[in-house]
């Protein structure tokens, strides 16, 4: 258990460093990509306002969020979305350390504490799986509003495809992890019930 605790502590420290580096990169290079439809390569210079650069390879426009004055709000959404994802991993690793410590002291029961731990962590993971993609999409919508980008095709003019959140944008891998944690919580509760029912029979 000591080895597991040390490894998980190192893992949580490494994850925190990755989070810090990611947040630093977001702060030093704030920007957004909007997909543009119906624009020819020769039209880009005459249509796009300053602070926007068209990439013909990806059919997207790079937006300088600082030039449009939305860098603070944009970064808030971006940092919240990514910090919550890293945060789930950090909470998971630190809770493993806590469980190992409780097992080492012999004060951890089989079902109740661990089942609540699994259910709580599952609820946190599910919330992040839904809300983190929503925050990233909200950041892009904020940029589109700031640049007054046309979002509907009119008379053949180019328009921006601004993403709208739907349930399909959920982080399904994280949602699957949450479902496994809920299943673990249920199994632990059943194990606790079975242990209580069989006490004193053997």
Write a compact overview of the structure shown.
With 202 residues, the protein is of the alpha+beta class. It has helices at 2-28, 44-47, 71-105, 112-146, 172-198, and strands spanning 32-37, 52-55, 60-63, 159-161.
Question: Which oligomerization state do the chains in this entry correspond to?
Answer: single chain
In terms of DSSP E residues, the strand content is 5-15%
Task: Tally the beta strands.
Answer: 4
N-end to C-end Cα span: 29 Å
Describe the structure.
By secondary structure, the chain is an alpha+beta fold. Helix content is 63%, strand content 8%. It has 5 helices and 4 strands; from the N terminus they run H-E-H-E-E-H-H-E-H. The protein has helices at 2-28, 44-47, 71-105, 112-146, 172-198, and strands at 32-37, 52-55, 60-63, 159-161. The chain has a 4-stranded antiparallel beta sheet with strand order 2-3-1-4. A hairpin with a 4-residue loop joins strand 2 and strand 3 (60-63). The longest helix is centred in the middle third of the chain and has 35 residues, at 71-105. The radius of gyration is 24 Å and the shape is elongated.
